[in-house]
Structure formats: structure tokens, C-alpha cells
Write a structure and sequence with these properties.
heterodimer; A: alpha/beta; Rossmann fold; 46% helix; B: Four Helix Bundle (Hemerythrin (Met), subunit A)
Chain lengths: 261, 117
């Protein structure tokens, strides 16, 4: 894991750098508060930081304040290192946005233990973001086909049509269903029917451009929205090509050959 | 037997018994200490309290890292005097620190030879 060390005092910096390297961290060592803040504010910057309190240009609490101003980026866990032991200094350090405070000279084992605490918090944040993204996907996508669900596609459709009207652009909306789908379910069972829906979704997605969108309208109905499509485009004349890349396409459903209607 | 101004046990603990790191720290100390000490002397002589605080604070950090507790305590007192603008006591405090620093420098040199050898 990457860690940033900011300390203007060379001995401290060297000691911290070596201690952290030995503990398996990928270290970026900096002697100036302003540069430290710039590094930590980068989108892919280190997410762990050890900051000396007194530094040129910008002190440790100043770095914390700069980092906490950022919005929408990963959390950075910051520990202030200082010889200041007064309670009001500790409070001021934490109030500036630091997560922890360690008095210099530090004990290597204590420092590593505190960084492990920081890493646990960052891991927790990662898991929360992952869970949020998963929930967001579930709320906006169809569980079977992973296409946009009906609610999202209707919302997108409304917005895109307004935009197309405003910009006076030609767009295509295809609403189609699978003929005789009931027969598939009745003949091969519902699992096979699900596989047909998934395959149809795959074919639709691979047929359109990356900025068009495809959604499951309901049951065996799908909706495709293709923006800025020329009036001469084949989609107007041969819409089935969107679903069937090759005529009379065929694939195997659980070892049973199935022919697309 | 001369008093030991570096707590070797503590220094070994801090460097996790890394002789190369210890050598690095001693080298940095030797290179920077003389310069800082001279800057502090000038600040004390000119009764510049702000500069005394800056130099004393930097030296305190170096000495603490070296586990030179007595020297760090002496310089912390000078830093405190600077913060309180007690300029009349600068010379006395600096002189006390100077005596410790002289012996400390000798010990650092000896220790450096030991670590390098």
C-alpha cells in the first residue's frame, strides 16, 4: 500500500521512510507541506499519510484541511506526528481533519499498529463503496439480463427525447419482443427461456454503439434507443438486424438446438 | 567513565537493529548538526527569539531521533525560553547545551566508527 511521509527534518524523514519500507509500504517522502497536500489531492494519490506538524509553506494541520476540502475522492487516513503534547494541540490537530496523532520520537511498533488501524478504516470504506455500487447496479439493472431496467430506461428515454428535440436530431427507438417466446418456455422450460432472454440481451448490446442504450422493457420485450441516427440508416428498414446479427441464427440451449424465430 | 549521551538501546529499538539505517542517521546528524548549532549560536548572540525557536526546534527533533535525551532536554529548554522571549537567559542555556553537545559530537564520531567497522 502507498504511504506519504511529509517531514522537513531529514533524519526523521529517513527514519520514517526506512521503517515504513520495512513494514511493506510503498513510500513517497516529501519535505514540504504544500507538495504533500498536492500529492494527497491527486485522484490516485496515497491514501495513508504521516505528516509532521511543523513544515515549510504549509504545516501538518494545513495539509489535513486541504485534503479534507476535496469532494468525491477516496478517503485519506492522516496521522500527525509532533512533539506537541498539550491537550489543546492534540485537539487542534484532530479538528484540522487528522485521524490520529503520534508524539515524536515515535516507537516503530506503535506507529505500525496505528497505521494498521488506518488501513482497516480504508478497507472498510472500500467495502462500503463496493456495497453501494452493487446496490446502485441492482436498483438500475434487470437482474436476469443485466440490461437497464424499465424504470431507468423510461427515465433515460424521457431525457434523451427532450435533448433530441432541443437539438433537432434524429433518433431511433426500437421496442420489440421475442415472437413465440411462450413456446420456448413451454418446450424447453423456464431456465431455457431465461437463457434466450440473456442471449437476446447480449446480442442487442453487441449490436448497438457504446453510447446507445438497451433496456428490458418487461417480460420478453426490449427497448433500444439509438441517438443521432441518420434517416438512411438500416435500422429503419431492417430493425431485426439489431437482434439477429446473422439470419436464421441458431445456438444450443442446454444441448437442444434452438432456432431463432 | 564518561557519561553516555546516546541511549544506544533506545536507538537500536527505533531503528529496529538496522545498522545501515543507524549509519545513515549518524551521517545526517554529523552533516546537519554543526550547521544548525552555528545558526543557533548566531540567533542566541543576536537575541533573535524567533530564530532561536526555529533552530532549537529543529535540533530537538534531530537529537530526539538520535535518542540523545539529555541534549534534547537541554535544547527544549532553550526553545521554551525563545517562545517566552526570555532573551536574558539565552546565553546561559546555550552554554549548558554547548557543553553537552561537545561531548555528544565526540561520542557520535566514536559510535559512527563502531557502526561502520
Amino acid at each position: 500500500m502507498r504511504i506519504l511521509i511529509a517531514d522537513d527534518e531529514l533524519m526523521s524523514r529517513r527514519l520514517l521512510e526506512k521503517t515504513m519500507q520495512r513494514a511493506g509500504y510503498d513510500v513517497t517522502a516529501i519535505a514540504n507541506g504544500q507538495l504533500a497536500a498536492a500529492e494527497l489531492c491527486k485522484p490516485e494519490g496515497p491514501r495513508l499519510a504521516l505528516l509532521d506538524w511543523i513544515m515549510p509553506e504549509l504545516d501538518g494541520p494545513g495539509v489535513c484541511r486541504e485534503v479534507r476540502k476535496r469532494k468525491g475522492q477516496s478517503y485519506v487516513y492522516m496521522i500527525l506526528l509532533t512533539s506537541k503534547e498539550r491537550k489543546e494541540d492534540v485537539v487542534a490537530g484532530l479538528e484540522s481533519g487528522a485521524d490520529d496523532h503520534l508524539t515524536k520520537p515515535f516507537d516503530p511498533e506503535e506507529l505500525k499498529a496505528r497505521l494498521r488501524t488506518g488501513k482497516r478504516i480504508l478497507d472498510l470504506e472500500d467495502r462500503l463503496i463496493e456495497a453501494r455500487e452493487e446496490m446502485r447496479f441492482q436498483a438500475t439493472h434487470d437482474a436476469l439480463t443485466s440490461l437497464w431496467n424499465r424504470g431507468v430506461i423510461m427515465d433515460l428515454l424521457g431525457r434523451e427525447l427532450t435533448r433530441a428535440r432541443r437539438e433537432n436530431k434524429c433518433t431511433a427507438i426500437l421496442l420489440g419482443d421475442l415472437d413465440h417466446f411462450k413456446n420456448i418456455n413451454n418446450t424447453f422450460g423456464h431456465l431455457a427461456g431465461d437463457e434466450v432472454l440473456r442471449e437476446t440481451a447480449r446480442r442487442l448490446v453487441s449490436s448497438v454503439r457504446s453510447y446507445d442504450f438497451v433496456g428490458r422493457f418487461g417480460g420478453e420485450e426490449f427497448l433500444v434507443y439509438a441517438e443521432q441516427i441518420a434517416i438512411q440508416h438500416s435500422v429503419w428498414h431492417e430493425p431485426r438486424r439489431f437482434v439477429k446479427p446473422s439470419p436464421r441464427a441458431q445456438w444450443k440451449l442446454r444441448q437442444v438446438p434452438y432456432q431463432f424465430p | 567513565m564518561a557519561k553516555n549521551f546516546i541511549d544506544l538501546e533506545e536507538l537500536l529499538k527505533r531503528t529496529e537493529n538496522d545498522r545501515e539505517l543507524m549509519r545513515d542517521l549518524l551521517t545526517i546528524f554529523q552533516e546537519e548538526f554543526r550547521q544548525r548549532h552555528q545558526a543557533l549560536r548566531e540567533a542566541v548572540e543576536s537575541q533573535n527569539a524567533t530564530q532561536v525557536v526555529v533552530e532549537a526546534h529543529a535540533l530537538k527533533g534531530m537529537l530526539s531521533n538520535l535518542a540523545a535525551v539529555e541534549a534534547a532536554t537541554a535544547i527544549a529548554e532553550l526553545e521554551r525560553l525563545g517562545r517566552n522571549n526570555e532573551t536574558s537567559r539565552f546565553l546561559e542555556s546555550f552554554s549548558h547545551f554547548g557543553a553537552i553537545a561537545k561531548e555528544l559530537s565526540r561520542q557520535v564520531e566514536a559510535f559512527m566508527a563502531e557502526v561502520s567497522g
